[in-house]
Amino acid sequence: MNELKETMLLAAEEAGKIILQYFNGAFEIRNKDGINNLVTEVDMFSEKVIIDIIRDKYPEHSIISEETGAMMHSSDYQWLIDPIDGTVNFAHSIPICCVSIGLLYQNELILGVVYNPMMNEKFVAERGKGATLNGRPISVSKKSDFRKACLVTGFPYAWPDSYEHPIRVFERFILEGLPIRRLGSAALDLCWVACGRFDGFWEYNLSSWDVAAGYLIVQEAGGNITNFEGARYNVFEKQTLATNGLIHDEMLSIIRHRK
Ligand code: IPD
Ligand code: CA
Ligand code: CA
Q: Ligand 3 centre from 145 Cα, in Å?
């Protein structure tokens, strides 16, 4: 496990250096599907460095990475990589973005790192061994009074007709009179729940690379993470609710409109 963890941390650090080097500077920006769904050349540089480091050590492992896609092998190990989570922030020189790398073994998350080089904050979790921020153990908040909770969310660029419009769900939370933030990086949203800055996070339509590392970090910090039915969540699902555990039921009931 140590070697896997060292490889993961090295990849995150090297990618973080690239992000810092280009932040606030000049780089190419393209849009993917939709004019505001951006990718920069720095996403590609960051992704290359991460994949090269992992491939060099573990050429037989499977990798799913946002910009390159799936590179599957018949391996028990699968890496899930977001080379910059918060690309829109990065492209606008807003210093809230990160590298996110998660590792599955036989479909179970075993390791995760989320590194925000701008704030020099590195969140790490190892299954069964807790979560840390810059080496110090972290835990979710102890807030049980939902009326005092501070929440964070994000909005998808698209959603299916079968799903309630995300703004309606947002409206219900706002009408509760709660402070709600929108950072623009789902991986950091999860980590900021894990270290107690936020009490809860929900978002619809995230991808496996957005949530893999943050999922384990929340769990190892003592939080709860489910889908919007309250059932066990997996990283390939589209509904993410992560909380300190104490306000989980209240958040679920607002999302499901069962107040
Ligand atoms: C995005 C961020 C954002 C979330 C979007 C994601 P990207 O990832 O995590 O917070 O709302 O759904 O796509 O595109 O910056 O890697
Ligand atoms: Ca992302
Ligand atoms: Ca990304």
A: 34
Same domain assignment for residues 91 and 180: no
- Are the C-beta atoms of residues 241 and 255 closer than 8 Å to each other? yes
Pocket test for ligand 1, best of 99, 169, 210 (most atoms within 8 A of CB): 210
Kindly give the distance from the C-alpha atom of residue 176 to the centroid of ligand 3, in angstroms, as a whole number.
Answer: 32
Tell me the C-alpha to C-alpha distance, in Å, between residue 159 and each of 108, 121, 235, 248, 251.
27, 32, 18, 24, 20
- Residues 108, 25, single domain; the answer is yes
pLDDT tens-place string over residues 156-209: 887 777 788 899 999 999 999 999 999 999 999 999 999 999 999 999 999 999
Q: Is 43 in the pocket of ligand 1 (CB under 6 A)?
A: no
- Domain housing 63: 2-137
**101 Cα to the center of ligand 2, angstroms:** 11
Beta-strand pair 180-181/136-137: unpaired
